[in-house]
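#lab-general

N.A. 3:47 PM
ok so I finally got the sequence cleaned up, no stray characters, all 225 residues accounted for. can someone with queue access submit it? mine expired

B.Y. 3:52 PM
send it over

N.A. 3:53 PM
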Amino acid sequence: MVALFVVLTIVLFLTIDLVYQSVQRRKSEAAEPALAYQKIPAINRISVPEGLFFHPGHTWAAVTESGSTKVGIDDFTRKLFGKIDAITFKKTSGEVKQGEPLFVVKQGKRTFEMVAPVDGIIEATNTAIAQDPSMLRIDTYQNGWLATLKPTNLKKNLEKLNIAESAKEWAREEVARLRDFFAGAAFENRLVGQTLQDGGPPVEGVLEFMSDEAIEKFEKEFLQR
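B.Y. 4:20 PM
back already:
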């Protein structure tokens, strides 16, 4: 009888230990996405260099000494994209209008159309960036230009763009607007979504965690303007 009691006690303790280990394992697995999320750099500062003109659709324009205009994507969207798999051009020659799609950013199965900040005739595209878009993580504004345009309506176009202090204020407003957007957005990663919706800071690559529906809404509210 005593031996049976000892055996049952051992079985009971083993069962309790297995249950405990199982619970701890599930907790650990659930926590992994949150830990991975915490390792992603927070977007605490958006770079807005002096002398560049910023389009509401988050592309920029820089007028060169030769009179051409270099264009690219701003630091706001570059950080939201995080990893960029490819950049392709809607056009490599001919004329493009301000606000028309000029190039496409690809991230996994998703694509994002980015607009031309000014009217112009396409003179060149940056093949180095197209071949290695990871270069944008190092330099979004200098060597990170994506195309050069011969402007055709520059004076009128610039009236619709932000520069200097107005650009910095606009960038601050966009970050605040992004926080409001997160409050109603759907995320494929529940823990990431909960953190952002509770007021956590935007993080690099956050678009990777958003649902397709939220991505479509983001494009309409931030890129197609």
